[in-house]
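Figure 6 in text form: structure in, sequence out.
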């Protein structure tokens, strides 16, 4: 089980919710009632990346956040709207499982409501998919829950929201996402499938953003470290206010 013990080695500080027994969950939740909800997608990410990139990224970042700050990581939700298969001007109909915006909103509302019932005080919803309005829907629902439950905090974000633009911006299978994938799951990436004799484009390669052929594990590590630092500062502020 991927859990980390505190310095006294008597209790776990974080864990994977679906891989723990009730008494283990409650021991962590009593100390740190934080839920991490990774939100991903099954989506075509070109020939060089896996279809589950958004889910792998979101789940991995949530695990790292929980290890650093305590709390419980829920299974990734691979439901997304506004995928590349529906993007105007491109033709990638296969390898994406797309859902309606209405379903995304409803699923988010019901999931957050369940986390309230389960007693969590801070809910971090990390979306690996940045399609619009998919991402805005998640953020809007979170804000509505902040108003509905003022004694709790719901924080919905994408990883680039708290990073400088010169390090990472919203992209689709470009240098940023590909570098993160090289860091977390290098065995799933094959840069050799990308063309070597022309520019990379959205229309031909399903890439939006800077050239993924320049992606490196080292850049992915740099992105992760700064994300964890910035997110952890915010989580610490939320702990002081809501726990």
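Output sequence:
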């Amino acid at each position: 089980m991927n859990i980390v013990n505190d310095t006294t080695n008597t209790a776990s500080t974080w864990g994977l919710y679906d891989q723990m027994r009730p008494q283990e969950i409650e021991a962590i939740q009593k100390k740190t009632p934080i839920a991490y909800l990774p939100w991903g997608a099954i989506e075509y990410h070109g020939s060089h990346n896996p279809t589950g990139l958004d889910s792998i990224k979101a789940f991995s970042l949530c695990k790292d956040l929980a290890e650093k700050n305590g709390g419980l990581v829920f299974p990734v939700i691979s439901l997304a709207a506004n995928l590349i298969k529906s993007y105007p001007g491109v033709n990638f109909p296969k390898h994406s499982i797309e859902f309606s915006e209405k379903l995304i909103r409803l699923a988010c509302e019901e999931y957050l409501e369940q986390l309230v019932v389960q007693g969590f005080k801070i809910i971090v919803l990390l979306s690996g998919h940045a399609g619009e309005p998919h991402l805005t829907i998640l953020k809007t629902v979170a804000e509505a829950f902040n108003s509905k439950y003022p004694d709790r905090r719901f924080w919905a974000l994408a990883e680039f929201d708290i990073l400088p633009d010169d390090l990472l911006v919203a992209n689709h299978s470009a240098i940023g996402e590909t570098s993160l994938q090289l860091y977390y799951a290098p065995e799933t990436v094959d840069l050799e499938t990308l063309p070597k004799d022309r520019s990379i484009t959205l229309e031909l390669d399903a890439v939006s953003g800077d050239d993924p052929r320049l992606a490196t594990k080292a850049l992915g590590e740099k992105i992760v470290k700064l994300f964890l630092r910035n997110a952890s500062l915010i989580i610490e502020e939320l702990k002081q206010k809501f726990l």
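Caption detail: The chain has one domain: 31-235.
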